[in-house]
Amino acid sequence: MRLTVLGKSPAWTDAGGACSGYLVEGVEGRAFLLDCGNGVFGKLRARRDYREVEAVVVSHLHGDHVLDLAPFAYALTVGPDAGSVRPALHAPAGAAAFFRRLAGAWGDEELIPRAFALSEYEAGDQIELAGVAVRPHPVPHYGPTNAIELEARGGGRIVFGADGRSSERLAVAAAGADVLIAEATLAEPEAAPLSERGHMSAAEAGELAARAGVGRLVLTHISDELDPGRALAAAAAAFAGTVEIAAEGSTYETGDPG
Ligand SMILES: [Zn+2]
Ligand SMILES: [Zn+2]
Fold first, then answer.
1. Can you list the domains of the chain with their CATH numbers?
2. Is 231 helix (H, G, I), strand (E, B) or coil?
């Protein structure tokens, strides 16, 4: 399994960057997308033919994780090969109504369900894509949100924490993973009580990675307006393994291709 960072910006994009999006390549060259935030479709096109993407898995229904489903849907429905493929779209409960409202704002309620075979997943589901077992794990954020666990047929686990405060749920989902991709939106932990927080700092991501016993920590959802050296040092203070900041084009490979 190989995961490539297409976009790692938080809700405001980096200079020249894209919001949340990761290309996952599994067996036999098959591929799917994890999140499709604004800017991601163009980044995908720079690397792979979008017609080869067999599915999109969405962690939660925030703009920075879903907005480029609109250009992707136009490519699939009015592009030169319109209608030739209809990828699966796996999204949390409420997604069907949400996507109708989203594209309905400009008068095309059916845009996303026309382009994608949409299904709403639930906690405990396992979705098989490209020889990778994909498991959503609900985590606390603003609105229903899921960390996404990827386990390759040939071995290896990558856990994408999505957005959310530090939580036992994410530590359990990520336990022993080869790679944890964790959000580090904040320069400092929020002042609010933990139960009311919605995001993590790099220091909190480092503590969580240590608790989960992962092999490698990748900080994501982190703005290019934050100091990367400071974020890395804060995470490394708690976590002894490899820490890096997600960068567009970085790849993470686990196990054999299966
Ligand atoms: Zn986000
Ligand atoms: Zn969010």
1. 2-251 (3.60.15.10)
2. helix
* Selection from 14, 53, 15 nearest residue 36 by Cα: 53
Q: What is the pLDDT of residues 45-91, one digit of tens each?
A: 999 999 999 999 999 999 999 999 999 999 999 999 999 999 999 99
Coil vs helix vs strand at 173: helix
Distance separating alpha carbons of residues 240 and 216, to the nearest angstrom:
9
**Tokens 């708690």 sit at which residue?**
238
Question: Ligand 1 mean position to 169 CA, how many Å?
Answer: 18
Ligand 1 center to 7 CA (angstroms): 11
The strand pair at 251-253 and 242-245 is best described as: unpaired
- Among residues 137, 136, 130, the alpha carbon closest in space to that of 153 is found at 130
Model pTM score: 0.97
Rounded CA separation 27/129 (Å): 9
Count of CB atoms situated within 10 Å of the CB of 251 = 11
Among 54, 149, 59, 70, CA closest to 105 = 70
Measured in Å, residue 163 CA sits from the centre of ligand 1 at 6
Structure tokens at 191: 């002042």
